[in-house]
């Protein structure tokens, strides 16, 4: 198992960035969020090893209430 965090990128509505950060912080460290491009709603999630399935389930459940678009990797330096 790799000890490096996995990076995943998503586009959300700009108004949902703060809510997504708040919800992630309440989930006991399943991911660290960095806002990459606030004007376009692009965020990066840094996911610790072993928490990938939790993040997938979490983001999937949020798609029922907010627009979340998975994006390919970007130019953000690794955490």
Written account of the structure:
The chain has 79 residues and is α+β, with helices and mostly antiparallel strands. Helix content is 25%, strand content 29%. It has 2 helices and 4 strands. It has helices at 17-25, 52-62, and strands at residues 6-12, 32-37, 42-47, 68-71. It has a 4-stranded antiparallel beta sheet with strand order 2-3-1-4, covered by helices on one side. The model is unreliable at 75-79 (pLDDT under 50).
Count of DSSP H/I helices: 2
Structural class: alpha+beta
Q: Walk across the major sheet and give the strand order.
A: 2-3-1-4
Low-confidence stretches: 75-79
Shape: globular
Largest sheet: 4 strands, antiparallel
What share of residues is helical? 25-40%
| Rg measurement, Å | 12 Å
Amino-to-carboxy terminus distance:
17 Å
Q: Assess the beta-strand content as a share of residues.
A: 25-35%
* Sequence of secondary-structure elements: EHEEHE
Strand element count: 4
Determine the mean pLDDT. 88
């Amino acid at each position: 198992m790799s000890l490096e965090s996995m990076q995943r990128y998503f586009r959300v509505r700009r108004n949902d960035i703060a809510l997504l950060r708040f919800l992630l912080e309440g989930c006991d460290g399943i991911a660290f969020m960095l806002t990459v491009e606030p004007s376009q709603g692009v965020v990066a999630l840094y996911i610790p090893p072993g928490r990938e399935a939790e993040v997938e389930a979490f983001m999937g459940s949020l798609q029922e209430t907010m627009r979340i678009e998975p994006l390919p990797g970007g130019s953000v330096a690794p955490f």
